[in-house]
Write a structure and sequence with these properties.
The chain is of the alpha/beta class. The protein has two domains: 130 residues, Response regulator (Rossmann fold, 3-Layer(aba) Sandwich), CATH 3.40.50.2300; 106 residues, Winged helix-like DNA-binding domain superfamily/Winged helix DNA-binding domain (Arc Repressor Mutant, subunit A, Orthogonal Bundle), CATH 1.10.10.10. The protein has nine helices and twelve strands. A five-stranded parallel beta sheet has the order 2-1-3-4-5, with helices on both faces. Helix 2 links the parallel strand 1 and strand 2. Helix 3 runs parallel beside helix 4, helix 5 runs parallel beside helix 9 and helix 7 crosses helix 9. The termini are far apart.
């Protein structure tokens, strides 16, 4: 394997030529392998060919907008996506997170903050890959979390797989990490702050919008009726929890 092959692959999807050049130069200077594209249609093709390990995504793109690109990417890729956008409105952030973005950084931003968020996203993805390839992974004491029987919610820690209603559910790395934190602490209420710090890191302790959005997304994927959740429950004003493992109630 060559040195280039070992470099982390980052795809920058940005229509502003100055920003595109800046990102490429700064990331290459830090030994990342970088590809840049200017519109969403090109980005779909490049993502399939380049197989990025992280995507930096602007939302205002010609040909195919960033949100549409994100939705299509999430049909087959779990690579972390950090949105870089001039839009600071909460509905736009929520929409991006709903579609599978892992983080959202508003322009203008400092280079140091961007690099820190890149490191966080890559660490999380690396942990996901390591545990997926591990027989038991992490500090798991059980191989599974089960609630509601064989057709209920099942989390397979060894293989990082979630099932609901007997079907495997596709989760992004961040969605899985959030579900994992809740199920490993089944029956215990985890506060908003605890979940944000454990899943996103200490710099995100006040980002309740992130947490609400990801919980809503998980409920849509895992709950038979998301409006009347059975698995992902909340203690109003405090935090979230899941019911005890079935084996704990025997």
């Amino acid at each position: 394997m060559t040195t280039t092959d070992k470099k982390i692959r980052i795809l920058c999807v940005e229509d502003d030529p100055q920003m595109r050049t800046f990102l490429q130069a700064q990331l290459k200077a830090r030994n990342f392998q970088v590809q840049t594209v200017r519109d969403g249609a090109q980005a779909i093709d490049m993502a399939a060919i380049f197989e990025p390990q992280l995507v930096l995504l602007d939302l205002s793109l010609p040909s195919l907008d960033g949100l549409t690109f994100l939705r299509r990417l999430r049909e087959w890729s779990g690579a972390p996506v950090i949105v870089l956008s001039a839009h600071d409105e909460e509905p736009v952030k929520i929409r991006a997170l709903d579609l599978g973005a892992d983080d959202y950084l508003t322009k203008p931003f400092s280079l140091n903050e961007l690099l820190a968020r890149v490191r966080v996203a890559l660490r999380r993805a690396d942990e996901t890959a390591r545990l997926r390839n591990s027989a038991m992974g992490g500090d798991a004491q059980r191989a599974y979390y089960r609630c509601g029987g064989e057709n209920g919610l099942i989390v397979d820690y060894a293989h990082r797989i979630a099932r609901s209603g007997g079907q495997v559910v596709h989760l992004t790395p961040t969605e899985y990490d959030l579900l994992c934190e809740l199920t490993r602490n089944a029956g215990k209420v985890l506060t908003h702050r605890e979940l944000l710090q454990r899943v996103w890191g200490p710099d995100y302790s006040g980002e309740n919008t992130y947490l609400r959005t990801f919980v809503r997304h998980l409920r849509r994927k895992l709950e038979p009726n998301p409006s009347e959740p059975r698995f992902l429950l909340n203690e109003p004003g405090v935090g979230y929890f899941v019911p005890p493992d079935d084996s704990d109630e025997r």
